[in-house]
Every structure is written in C-alpha cells, then in structure tokens.
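Entry 14. Structure prediction run on the chain below.
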Amino acid sequence: MKVSNIIKFIFFSVLIYFVWLTFKNISFIDICAAIQSIDTITYGAAFFLMLTSTIGGQSAFFIIYIRRYFNAHNALIEIIKINVALQFYTLILPGGAVALIRHKKFLNSGLPVLKSLGVIVFYRLMLLAVSSIVAAIYIAKHSVLFMSELDLSSEYLYTSSIFFVFLFLVLLSIVLFLLKKRGRGLIARIQGLEIFVLKPMIFSGLTVLISLMLGALSYWLVFLSFDITFSFLDVFMLRSTIFFFQIIPFSIAGVGVREIILAIILPIYGINETLTATIMIVVFSFQLLLGLIGGAQELFNNYKKGART
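Output returned:
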C-alpha cells in the first residue's frame, strides 16, 4: 500500500471519528431549528463574502501575473470564468488535482508552460506563507486558553506555534537551495517568468491577505447570526488557521480539515455541540453553492465548445 493511501486512510478515519463525536449527542431537529433561525439576508451576505473571497481573491492574484497573455479587454473576465469553473472541481477533487486542471486551462488560454506552472506554485506558496504566519500568531495569542481547556503543556503550544513559521522557512530554504543547485540557468528562467519581482509580490500578498479577511468576515457574520460574539481579529486568525490546513493536498474541498478544527476550537469558547454542528453545515453549504455555480459555468463552457464544432 502506498504511503499516500495510508495517510488518506488515517485522515478520513480521524474525520469520521470527529464527526461522530460532534453529532452523536445532537438532535437533528435542534440543528434544523438552528439553521432556520439564520436570517436570509445575513446568510446571503455571508455567502457573497465567501464567493468574493474565493473567486475574487484568486482572480485578483492571477491577473497581476498573467493578464498580458489574455485579450486586454477581457483578461479579468476570462480569469474569473476559469476560477468560477474550478470551484466545481474543488468540490470533488483534492487540491493537487485542481491545480493541474487550472494549469490545463491556463495553457488553453495561451500561457507558456513554465509561466503557468510558476504562477500556480507561487500562488500556493503565498497562501502557505500568509496563512502560516497568521496561524502561528493565533496559537501563540490563545496559548493560555488552549492550555487550560485542552490540558496542553506550554512546550507543546510553543512548538505548535513556531511550526507554521518553521514550515515557511523550510519552503524558503528549498527555493534558495534550488537556486544555488541549478545555478544561473534556473535563476534566468525564474527571472524570465517575472514572478519574484518586488512590486507584484507585494500586491499579490495583499490580495491573499484581503481574500482571507473577506472569508473571515463571512465566518464572522455566521457567528453573529447565532449570537456568538467573537472579535473580528480572532475570527480572521481562526479562518486563516483553517485555510492553512485546507491546503493539505489530499483534502477534498477542505472537508474534514475545517470540521475537525471547528470541532476542537469552538467548544473551547463555550459553544455547544448543536451550534458547532450547525456552523459546520452552514459553512459547508457555501462550498456546495460555489461548486454548483462552478459546475454550471463548466457545463456552459462545454456547451459553447460543442456548438462551435
């Protein structure tokens, strides 16, 4: 059996265990009542923010680097269409497979192979960099609370908080090693891709940060709809921590990662099991809606291709 299959088996076993722990003492009627208590306008606003965070954030990032490969008047629209369609695949495939589909769509749009691969890899690195730093701050900020509620030692939390920063440093070290190993040829290729340029890097980093903040604002509205008072800063850091773990390649649509973290963290703040389960369902419903929109876009794209032939 492959190591990747063993990891997947362990992951989904842990997921099933946490889902069972979360839902075993919960009444389905109570969950339905809690869902019905959500104001329609609040739900719509929270979904719109999540849509903007996901599709808008991705589109803003990629247009910084690849807009000149598209028609000048339609660049943003074309990139948005690609990212909308990808939401369908995000719902049913692991992140690595979705990245390959994105690569194929970029190639079909006229991007050079190296440019497409470079900007997709850099996007993942930027997501890891920003979310890992925020996750480290979040764990360090709430170390006392986590120690008291989860019976964790200070050494454990200290190790966990620096892990995220350490991971970013490891990624940076790999990049520097490759540059040193491959020499001037690789440096020239990377420079030709025009990715590691200061100004675009700053703007792309800001797009990732704003995207995470919009996603956090969506979570915040969901919490407020259930009269749960979190500071926006805490929600932002919690959302970024979830997002960091959702980048795990064998997680499909972030399912399991998000639920496990919410099942661990929310009860620490005194949120009961019914509300925790309801929040999981509401947040996942955003993912389902995005996937349905993406599926409709992909069907429309295929219909247009069929009409042309």
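Confidence is low (pLDDT under 50) at residues 152-157.
Filed with the rest of this week's runs.
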